[in-house]
Amino acid sequence: MKYDFSFQNATKIYFGKDSLNNLEAELNNYGKNILLAYGGGSIKRNGIYDKVIAILNKCNKNVIECSGILPNPALSKMLEGAKLVRENNVDLILAVGGGSVVDCAKGISVASHYEGDDVFQRYWVDCAPLGDHKLVPVASVLTMVGTGSEMNGGSVISDTVNKIKNGRVFPPIVYPKFSILNPEFTYTVPKYQMVSGVFDIMSHLMEQYFSGDDDNTSDYLIEGIYKNVIRAVKIAIEDPTNYEARSNIMWDATVALNQLVACSKTQDWEVHMIEHQLSAYTDCAHGMGLCAISMPYYRYIYKFGLHKFVRFAKEIWKVDATGKTDEQVALEGIDCMEKFAKECGMVTTLKELGATKEMLPDIANSCILGGGYKEVTHEEILEILKNCYE
To answer: What EC number(s) has UniProt assigned to this enzyme (predicted)?
Structure first.
């Protein structure tokens, strides 16, 4: 392990078929007023809403609802939730849904008692340190997997007016206090959303993997999780109610971004930065945007981290290197990933996501620059976007 690091994760996880049974005991640790944050109507159709409400009522909680949180949570909805928190003296924000709902709940917590009208600029764009204003505890009941937001400080919010989508990893004080993970709650997620979430997991792992030239434990952990995701999603596509496959995917998503495999890693995150602006313009599913960008991006930068892309091809995709150059092996590994994505029904072109050629310069020019093995420019981002248009 080449670099010094600190690791802290205080989120309590309740995992399994009976995990919701722990909600009552946890709720007793908080005050009377609960903000229930959720998205559309799926949790009402599948019965999860009724189960959660029954427990809240049993605990004699006063429930204030903040519904309609979108897959790319909007700044306006976050501010609406923050207003509800202030007006109702909320003691706990309970997010019931996927990662976007949890992301928005964290944003609501940060914004609810912030004095100023620039909360998004200050904390999501400038990434300023948190002040000493009051934060409201957050907890989650997860119904869709991919983001890992249930066990980290990440919060991605979209300013739809100015077309800026930005993520921020807040310190542990913003992490959910507890998260309830029942794999059965993911059974009714449509295939499109499920495989989108799966590529989000894969991308989180690759953003951390494709960096550095050292030999460290984190890379071996990443490889194991990545291989398990590949195996589990194939089973889940064929049998959506296969508990073992669904539970593996759920835990893979959590561990992929709870900071454990980031330890002693320099990391990349350029694919995510590009996708954020892509979805700011198209409102596409996050994982599908990542999938469309990843292969062209990695084909553009692989030579700058050739050793790691060769390892990726051999360890993950079992590419036979006999008689091949390192460049051929690396590119074959990326080809294998693209083939897998297509077989799973993932999107591999920007055109499929609603992007137009006219959008591409604006998307490229609004991206935050960074990168791991290769720090790309706005001009290079535009070239990458053109390569993944169709």
So the answer is: 1.1.1.1
pLDDT digits (tens, 9 = 90+) for 246-294: 999 999 999 999 999 999 999 999 999 999 999 999 999 999 999 999 9
Q: Please indicate, yes or no, if residue 190 is contained in any of the structural domains.
A: no
Query: What is residue 247's predicted lDDT score, i.e. its pLDDT?
Result: 98
Cβ atoms within 10 Å, residue 329? 21
pLDDT for the residue 390: 85
pLDDT digits (tens, 9 = 90+) for 153-211: 999 999 999 999 999 999 999 999 999 999 999 999 999 999 999 999 999 999 999 99
Specify whether 210 is located in the same domain as 175. no
What does the block give as tokens for 231? 């195996």
CB 206 within 8 A of CB 163: no
State which residues form the domain around 244: 202-387
Query: How many structural domains does the chain have?
Result: 2
Q: Is 360 within 8 Å of 382 (Cβ atoms)?
A: yes
Contact 281, 362 (CB under 8 A): yes
Half-sphere exposure of residue 47, counting CA atoms within 13 Å on the CB side?
6
Q: How high is the pLDDT of residue 41? A: 84
Per the listing, tokens 């930065």 go with: 273
H helices, E strands: number in the chain: 15, 8
Among positive and negative, which fits the CA dihedral 278, 283, 286, 289? Answer: negative
Task: Assign 321 to helix, strand or coil.
Answer: coil
Q: Report residue 378 as tokens.
A: 């706005």
Whether residues 42 and 149 share a domain: the answer is: yes
Contact call for residues 31 and 91 (beta carbons, < 8 A): yes
